[in-house]
Amino acid sequence: MVQKAIDFATKVHEGQYRKGTDRPYIVHPMEVGKIVSTMTQDEEIISAAILHDTIEDCEGVDANVLKEMFSARVAGIVSQESEDKSKTWMERKSATIERLKTAPIEVQMIGLADKLSNMRDIDRDYPVCGEELWNRFRMKDKATIGWYYKGVREALREAFAETEAFAEYCSLIDKNFG
């Protein structure tokens, strides 16, 4: 199932790039899957991690497609991890923080891996780009972006305080947002 998720995600993310870079987008869901695989061996959860942005960012992909191709569980996990792009940035991010506080552990796991992957990108690019880095995001304010990542940290602290992924995430937040 994991290889099928990799193949599907590679196809539907084709032509997409990480914000403000020439890095193919698929590197992000692959990294999210790899991070999740350090916390569980459950192939449906790892597959959902690889597919986590497909409903949100890929044309023609919805929960029904994922249910048919993978499973109802995978489709449900990806659906819970997806944001409603019709809302403003602040509405979406506030909703994500609130949702992560009480989401099932597998959704929280993918949320942590997703945000850790994003923080790794920020940590890699900030020393090179400096303050210009924040211009690649919809919310171009470093303090507001930091608010979001810190909010996710607090939402996930209880469930993941003892994991390496969470420790790395906290370290990168402190380093890049203070």
UniProtKB/TrEMBL annotation:
The protein's UniProt keywords, in alphabetical order, are: Hydrolase
Q: Could you tell me the EC number(s) of this protein?
A: 3.1.7.2
SMART domains from the entry? Answer: HDc
Indicate what this protein is called per its UniProt record. Guanosine-3',5'-bis(Diphosphate) 3'-pyrophosphohydrolase
Q: State the Pfam families in the record.
A: HD_4
Q: Offer an example of a GO molecular function term for this protein.
A: guanosine-3',5'-bis(diphosphate) 3'-diphosphatase activity
Its source organism is Coprococcus comes
Which segments constitute the HD domain? 25-119
Q: Which gene encodes it?
A: spoT
